[in-house]
User: Fold this.
Amino acid sequence: MEIEAKGINDAGGGPVLEEDVIQCEQWMRDHCHKTKRINASWSSMYIKRLIEDLLGILSVQHGAVIQAAKNLGYDFIPTEEGSHKVSFNFSFRA
Assistant:
């Protein structure tokens, strides 16, 4: 499954920016923990917006969120067939 700037499944937008991936990885290390099952409560787009809000940055690539999770060993599946969004096997730390 190829990850592009705007997500998966031929979402487009070109390559994912490494600086965005690094920011997302750091946020995930600080705020997430792995779960046994995929957590469908939050999509990758929700996580993208949450990272932007909590880090106070204007924009993070949607694909960077997915690539960061993949780099950190999280599993993910599309939220629905053909979707550019995914759900991950993580939850938030209290």
The chain has a mean pLDDT of 92. DSSP finds three helices and three strands in the chain. The first helix runs from residue 18 to 31. Strands lie at 32-43, 76-78, 86-92.
